[in-house]
Amino acid sequence: MGGQPMFILSEDAERTRGEDAQSSNIQAGKAVAETVRTTLGPRGMDKMLVSDSGDVVITNDGATILEKMDIEHPAAQMIVEVASTQEEEVGDGTTTASVLAGQLLAQAEDLLDDDVHPTTIVEGYHAASQLALDAIDDLVLDEELDDDLLQSVAASSMTGKGTGDINAGALAETVVAAVRHAETGDGIARNDIALRTQTGAGASATELVEGVITEEEPAHAAMPRSVEAANVAVLDLDLDLQEANIDAEYNVTDVSQLEQALDAEEEELAGYADTLVDAGVDVAFVTGDIADRVASVLGKEDVLAVESVSDDDASAIARATGSTTVGSLQDLESADLGHADSIHVESYGGDDLTFVEGGENAETVTLFVRGGTEHVADELERALNDALDVVIAALTEGGVVPGAGATEIAIADAVRSGATSVEGRKQLAVEAFADAVDVLPRTLAENTGLDPIDALVDLRNRHDSEGVAGLISEGQSGNVGDPVDAGVLDPAAVKREAAESATEAATMIARIDDVISSS
């Protein structure tokens, strides 16, 4: 065996080691972060994403951009995961987290060139991350989170995003109203706030519906399209003839037998309608099919019935109206019925939508999102989802902090101050972390039309003298001011999650010195 080479990898495997592996991974991470950097802030730009099939998405939402991109490099995919995690946990700050992760990698690259060991960089970054989290906690405002403050949080989240012909402030009122409706003594049920998009009107037509909207329409043209003070049944079944569980043949020898069979079917179907009418049902939402003859009878009795309702919509309607979902008509009782102040069917172009409003469970609401085009409606839906999430995060996960880059300036200052107590080369990594954080307000300044270096100097000076300094966007440019006075606020949870997830991704990538891939 002496002198014989040993092969432990297949011939098709590729291996990159040492500095080459580190450089490849860092460059990939930086490239992905750079892609979304220009979308940061109230004057950030949008991206157009075109799929192989020609589908187009126009957005400046970091998570959406990275999700739609066809990214293959494994290190780059880790930056995508940063944005995805940020979106899942707190609903906003995806661009901030991605840019910070990319800048931490850029700083790590310089440290590696200076022969700082990756483990030292990792330890320094983790120490700096803890300093950053402490700084965020110190910045949390002591003020009560009333509706005005929450509207500022929602508006800050949506400013610069595609909101069509309505400004973020007006939408923020609707967002806060939706959250307040879903708020109970046990917390906020995010599932009780739905969004439904519909093109055909400007974004200013977006409204809050205190109830549920379903896309299904009445099962028969003779049914009423509007019912007030409705008793509501939610049925998880088919209102149609029951099929036999076994294969069977019936021999019909004369017309009377055929008539008897048809009469039996008619009686069975009429029985379904009679059961609903006798139970006092005004509106029935059915997950299965409704036979034409059943629908016809219900229409004559002025009962509105909607078929093929999705399980999610059925569940939402049951919660909104206080109904109990019934799986068999034999089990239907008056106690199973819910109540709605109004149920009405509206036409939008060629689409019918059924509105269920004013149920017993007032916390269930729907944001009815309008847009002149599908692209506008979709982007507005993304903006509203983010706004809902940040308002909920502010209420449930630790309050709010100054926005407009003020928190990042404070973090960088705190990390630099804390670096003096760190010994050895790890101090270099702590200082590099602060430099990476500085890129966020610099990018805000650049996207706002200011000179990034001059703006950063002004921000630091004002922070040192007054304790808080942010970039306030005004018209085509901006200035350094107090973001709290300007109503620019962010949930503390967004900043914490961004610092933690970006640090974890950057340190994981920086530690990799060997990439083995198989064909």
Automatic annotation (TrEMBL):
Pfam families: Cpn60_TCP1 (PF00118). Keywords: ATP-binding, Chaperone, Nucleotide-binding. The keyword ATP-binding applies. The keyword Transferase does not apply. InterPro entries: Chaperone_TCP-1 (IPR017998), Chaperonin_TCP-1_CS (IPR002194), Cpn60/GroEL/TCP-1 (IPR002423), GroEL-like_apical_dom_sf (IPR027409), GROEL-like_equatorial_sf (IPR027413), TCP-1-like_intermed_sf (IPR027410), TCP-1_chaperonin (IPR053374), thermosome_alpha (IPR054827). Residues 9-28 are annotated as: Disordered. PROSITE patterns: TCP1_1, TCP1_2, TCP1_3. GO terms for molecular function: ATP binding; ATP hydrolysis activity; ATP-dependent protein folding chaperone; unfolded protein binding. NCBIfam families: thermosome_alpha, thermosome_beta. Belongs to the TCP-1 chaperonin family. This is Thermosome subunit. The lineage of its organism: Archaea, Methanobacteriati, Methanobacteriota, Stenosarchaea group, Halobacteria.
